[in-house]
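Ticket reopened. Same input as before:
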Amino acid sequence: MSAPAVPVSRAAYSSEELSLDLYRRLYLIRAAERRIIEHYGEDEMRTPMHMSVGQEAVSVGLCSALAPEDQVYGSYRSHALFLAKTNDPERFFGELYGRVNGTARGKAGSMHLAAPDAGLLCASAVVGSTIPAAVGTAFANQRLRNGKRCAVLFGDGALEEGGFWESLNAACAMRIPVVFVCEDNGYAVHTPKTVRHGFDRILDVVAQFRCGVFSTEGSTDVEVIRRSVAAALQCSAGGSIPAFVHVLTHRYLDHIGIEADRDIRSVGEDRRWRVHDPLVLQRSRLTLSGYEAADLQAEERQIEERIEAALWRARAAPAPGPEELLAGVFHEAAA
Amino acid sequence: MRALSYCDALREAQAQEMDRDPAVFVYGIGCPTRDKVFGSLAGLVERFGPDRCMDTPISEEAMTGFGFGAALGGLRPIHVHIRVDFLILAMNQLVNMISTYAYSTLGRGRVPLTIRGVVGRGWGQGYQHSKSLHSLFAHIPGLKVVAPTRARDAKGLLTAAIRDDNPVIVIEHRWLYWAEDDVPEEPYETPIGPGAVLRAGSDLTVVATSWMGVEALRAAEILQRVGVNIEVVDPRTLAPFDDTVAVASVRKTRHCLVADNDWIACGFGAEVAARVAEKCFSVLRSPVRRLGWAPTPCPTVRCLEDEFYPNAATIVRAVERALELPPTDLSGEDFYSHERHFRGPF
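Engineering reply: fixed in the latest deploy. New output:
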């Protein structure tokens, strides 16, 4: 896979406030995962971690294009999506530590991070399984005319699942305005997509369907991704058709766990991507637009403090009691 | 009260719920087209329009996930399959996604999704158009499974399923579609949970699911003539299984035969037998016995298919074994034959 060749350009600028907000969200995710890396070895977060490091801009761009009341579905690699949609590191760390302040009191763990109250409806450890659900939720929004929009984020591995093609076909045939976002990091576990795909460009294939097709052209710039998703959302809602967004991205770490996986790709490939690290890009944009280094450091320090507090609150929180095991197998009406 | 067929009872339940709640809609392969799923959706597309009685692509996994997502989005979908066998393609959505959702949201999440599956039999249905699979679904925590035998329960349980905030699979045997009984006109719920006594008796309890309930009632008529009075219990809800009615019946009769409309091994019948054995051990006068399908794929040709399914005669013989009775002469008896209703082609 070639490295992205999209520099930070003046044309990509939006309002400074937005740029700063996007940077805050990127930083929150990167810093939270840095804390995971520091503490994972203690063996207290006993949940298989599929890290988002390097891919943060996809979730941030997507969630920033969505309104807070809009819905999104994710995969097992949803640390970034959870934090981008909820901005809630406490429920995040609570879940990873398996404590009562976790989003599902530890019942879900890293692979099933969800926060329906914040619009992250579900995440699945089975590749591609949330894609049809997103079609259904988008259909409900359309039927109920509630103004909400629904997107689903999945990897390039999901393109090999029947459920993806079934969902794409159904959404096109039924004219359902769902937004499919493919974060293509080029690998399914350790298998490159050249081995797995019987086609060269997914965009060419999807373009044969009756839907909008959008590409970020290999950019790791969160603002490019945000604009692409925003255009897809507009096309989808306006035309009552689905839209497909293809985002090339790079996974810095192994499929699972906190180690780098340099053995599956060249140092050169890795380095080319890191030149375009989404945090570096966004930070340079802020600096170019006049933010002082000291101000940015203060922003970063504030986020670090939030994460630190959330981490320690999670560690201090109790584990769920045995009564929790049998609770909630079925819906329980609020008392 | 008025007599209504099982098929019309299903149709009426859906029409009344669609009337009552605009969030309810029916969808599935061919739903609004000519045959209206054996008539069980007759009149719905005309009355509620193609937006509420929808056709879909032939994509069982995606359309099941679609129902899940639509339910999370605030609708109350009813997904209809003309054969249960097709649900095998939807197992990922059912078992990995739908059944786990409430648990993953601490019981806060609602998945008000009803899935109707029709069990085929006869006239060459063969091994991919005849399965019931209720035992498979009933094994999964988080799914509710109902299999009504009577028309009145079909209406009440389907109504309850549609109103339930959890996923409910409704198993409907095709041959039951012709069965008639008294069905109230107004909407009502048959609670998802307790079973029902279809026929009171004192000598032996037959716990029978779905079509086997009809066969058990026929067996009861035959046995009545030789002075044996059997009680027939329909569990109605298979998951979560409430064994109260079955256990109370066996405590009274002290004998139990389970006739499940499914394979025997690891099946729902085994669950009933185990519960009865655990809860009635001290009063049982004979071992709990199980009847069900032959341990083979369902053959297509009629002569082998007749051997594959148990019927009223099989039940009579099993009752005689349990009660140590001599074999009843069944030569003059009339057993159920679907040819009276149906001559094909499919």
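Chain A touches chain B through 46 residues (CB under 8 Å). The longest helix of chain A spans residues 16-40. Please confirm and we'll close it.
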